[in-house]
Amino acid sequence: MSSWWRSNQAIGLYLVLIIGALFAYIWFQPWTHRIMRDGFRLGMMPMIGLGLMMICAAAMLADPLRRETPDALQDARVSDAWLPVIMLGAIAVCFWAMSWLGFVLAAPPFLLAVMLWFGLRPVRLAVILAVVVPVVVFGFFTLLGVRLPRGVLAGFF
Fold first, then answer.
1. 3-class secondary structure per residue, the chain
2. What is the pLDDT of residues 115-128, one digit of tens each?
3. What is the pTM of this model?
């Protein structure tokens, strides 16, 4: 077994700290406590979700396997942290592009890059899915009455 910092208990602690910080951030936002027409508070569902995540993460601190290290983390190094940073950057670029290109044009390059990065092959399938999935999602949300960003295609539909 390797160091404690890679154990299930440490991962549970990391999650508790991150979820706790997010919980506190949302708790202190003015919109969280705004009462809606139905009598519920606007931040109720995010807070319930974070509370449940906190319970699951806290369970990792005391579970019987807490001292075990997941196989995937046996050889992990600090330099491996660039992978999630790149993913977060790609998500940010996609959201920025959606604001002026629209969902239907911004999502396919992002989806294609992620699918290829995660190893989806053949490439032709990844290209087809990257085009079809955003169109289907856009159509589904339109049927539900939820407007996704239309961007430069606003005049067409």
1. CCCHHHCHHHHHHHHHHHHHHHHHHHHCCHHHHCECCCCCECCHHHHHHHHHHHHHHHHHHHCCCCCCCCHHHCCCCHHHHHHHHHHHHHHHHHHHHHHHHCHHHHHHHHHHHHHHHCCCCCHHHHHHHHHHHHHHHHHHHHHHCCCCCCHHHCCCC
2. 999 899 999 999 99
3. 0.61
